[in-house]
């Protein structure tokens, strides 16, 4: 048992961040900083741009989100992301796998006496 | 934006270009990052990490492997009073200026398959260089594309403002070449060379007459150097006045 609580949480978060980003786009288009605020408000803490933007980039390359650059009120402009049909399907499929995994973990932990 | 963040954004733009990411993507990414930093007030290095690592994540190694489409090239000249308008006209037809050659010509290229619209701006700079202009303009997607004496030209893809709509479906054919000397040398360069030559001769004659010996060594060379400085100084004053007049005209037009 070498991982600190912070390391363990970071590891879980890294494994599910792409799904969280996809989930945060189900309500409509959004941009990097707004997605970071959504994740922060959901209890995941402040996500830095250096972590979030490469994930958005990979999701776009995989065709799971579509990006469009538009002018912004503040600053030179920003990329707005929307969920594609493929992204919606991936969210459903892999989100379901995560829930099944989480249920198995929860069940075993309960048997181990973790409330 | 702080100087540190402006520097970070400029470095990021350079790193992304070096990695082979398409210019349109570089400009949009850089603008996005600049806006993020303005909104959060965060420090670029703290928010996005070291430039090299961040750029490598945004532009994977495969970016360089993308096959380049055929490119048209074109060298052309324009005078200072018309260059900005012409640059923007030809930029709208897909011509991207890569640099200004030793003869003062705009060295341009156009992607034959997927031409992008470009826009340009000219800035007045000191003879020593562009100072902090690169860092100041980089967050808005501007990239330096040439210097000539006290002028610096910057370009950016129109896609930074208009998105994919800026891609040209059917670009205009390449403009016809000018005939005669103007085809090769800009009027800007011809006037500079002519004025320099005349002033050199006058300075040499004056120094020679003053010393009674037209080939008097140090005095003669000093006269030549001083003479050469005159047209350059005059050009600086004329350009500065031109900019002032242009600025006033722009203000009155608003």
Task: Give an overview in words.
- The complex is a heterodimer of chains A (115) and B (254).
- Helix content of chain A is 63%, strand content 12%.
- Chain A has 115 residues and is an alpha+beta fold.
- Chain A has a single domain, classed as Winged helix-like DNA-binding domain superfamily/Winged helix DNA-binding domain (Arc Repressor Mutant, subunit A, Orthogonal Bundle).
- A three-stranded antiparallel beta sheet of chain A has the order 1-3-2.
- Chain B has nine helices and six strands; from the N terminus they run H-H-H-H-E-H-E-E-E-H-E-E-H-H-H.
- Chain B has helices at 3-18, 23-40, 44-48, 51-58, 83-92, 133-137, 159-162, 187-211, 218-253; strands spanning 71-76, 96-100, 106-111, 118-124, 143-148, 151-157.
- Chain B has a three-stranded antiparallel beta sheet, covered by helices on one side. In chain B, strands 4-6-5 form a three-stranded antiparallel beta sheet.
- In chain B, helix 1 (3-18) runs antiparallel to helix 2 and helix 8 (187-211) packs antiparallel against helix 9.
- Chain A binds chain B through residues 31-33, 48-50, 53-54, 57, 68-72, 74-79, and chain B through 28-29, 31-40, 42, 46-49, 53-54, 57-58, 139-141, 159-161, 163-164.
